[in-house]
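pls ignore typos typing on phone
LQZAQKY5 + seq
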Amino acid sequence: MANAHSAPRGQGVPGAPRAAAPGPADAGRDAPRAPRDPSPGTEAPATGQDAPRETARDRHHATPWPAARRIAAQAGRQAAAHRARTTEPPVDPVTGAQTDPATGLSLDPVADASTAPRAERFPRGAARVPLEAALGLVLAAPLTALTDLPSFDTSAMDGWVVAGPGPWAVRDEGILAGHEPPAPLSDGEAAAIATGARIPPETTAVIRSEHGRLDDKRNLHPLREVAHGQDIRPRAQECRSGELLLPAGSVVTPAVLGLAAAAGYDDLLVVPRARVEVLVLGDELLTSGRPRDGLIRDALGPMLPHWLRALGVEVIAVRRLGDDAGAVLKAVRDSTADLVVTTGGTASGPVDHVHPTLRALGAELLVDGVKVRPGHPMLLARLAEGRHLVGLPGNPLAAVSGLLTLAEPLLSELSGRAAPESSYGREAREPDTAPLHAAVQGHPHDTRLVPVVLRQDRDSGHDWAVPLHYNGPAMLRGIAAADALAVIPPGGAQGAQEVGILDLPWSWSTGNPGTDLPGNEGCFT
Ligand SMILES: Nc1nc2c(c(=O)[nH]1)N[C@H]1C(S)=C(S)[C@@H](COP(=O)(O)OP(=O)(O)OC[C@H]3O[C@@H](n4cnc5c(N)ncnc54)[C@H](O)[C@@H]3O)O[C@H]1N2
Ligand code: MOO
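k done
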């Protein structure tokens, strides 16, 4: 299938046709039926008895969706600043000093706060971790070369090193990579050499094995013209010692790990992983077997830890607490996590223990309900300086909505991954957008998050967001087939209208066929 990320989504898409939008190449993933909804532009927003009920609590407390994300990001920045003030900077294992060996600058976050450039470099605290533990983290300091690369003149090919014009008398001893330094060549001399081996002094060129011929007296004759310096990788061809390789704020990918190792690093200064604890509430939840006797399977315990890890955090525990008010209070009070994520119990039912727990602990509610469907009872609270709780509603897609609305922006700031307003110097990036393949029914007052597949238009190369049918709060069938969630503004969106796209942290890697179907009707219950 077309990879969702292969198209320049969000760039140039506005040029795509708006009225009679061409369908994506394979919209519907072999859907057995056509989309049920009317053609683009004819959809009316939900009204009357179809409109979801808005409770008194919603109207009083609920935060608009974009503002909720901003508040969550702000909470993440404050938590990061708190961590920077309170974390011991890492100690240089060689010198014992709290300095960055690459730059020689102090890593003391308090000292850093007094000088703007350094404060900017370490606003989130920094940890020194071995290379093998750094994948997915964000560099807290620039990656500067600890050596010239290559660190010596090296042969780019298997063949011979030669000095002066040929033919050349070939030495008995060849030169291998990783061996003793070779003796200088004299004019008219050659030596067999392996790729990556050190070039002897006075060498003028490397001749590839396929471009030279040895006669029976072990004299080497060139089979083509020899250019001075050919196939020699000169020392520092890629970088000089001290040269900037990657700025602070870069995400450590497998390629970055390779570069860091090549440049001489054993460990890296990174923004530490946020520590997250997941508390699953609900007496009705089974952890194995088929649903029975009014009990259902816990869908969030198996889902959330991995989703959170995909956001770059450390999940320190997943605990199932039932609907025991005392256990919830104790678990939240005693948690040492940067972020506690609860599931269920956010509404106002008899066993909804999240609000009473927060009241009992004197927590500050930063967001108490969001004008978004699904997921409107989601909440964000500050438990203490630098420590937060995100309450996800129990309905599984509502929980996903809360994860992406509140937890993701907070964690992205805390882990240094956030692009806009990041102090790590990354360029602010426009949020992704894509045109909708069909009109989508809106909620009259709230934003909707709707699972979509992203399909590439063959002609333009742009992605189209194809809304999926199974988008109800209690359903996971849509999101399991989806590449992303589309952000549908209050009132709905027309076919071909550009809407915001929230990527799923793994969507680049799946291509799941799924069994959901295109469908743009709203399912609010
Ligand atoms: N009177 C009102 N009732 C409800 C409202 C409302 O505004 N007024 N909002 C509804 C909405 S919308 C949602 S979403 C839920 C949120 O409820 P809670 O966060 O309190 O969650 P629970 O009541 O515990 O569970 C809701 C639903 O989800 C199922 N669930 C819970 N945990 C899991 C899990 N780990 N895996 C799978 N399914 C889970 C649970 O059995 C319930 O069916 O409140 C509505 N009510
Ligand atoms: O927030 Mo609820 O998810 O609309 O069911």
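Residues 1-54, 101-105, 108-123, 420-430 have pLDDT under 50 and may be disordered. Residues 56-78+273-414 form a domain with the Molybdenum Cofactor Biosythetic Enzyme; Chain A fold (CATH 3.40.980.10). more later
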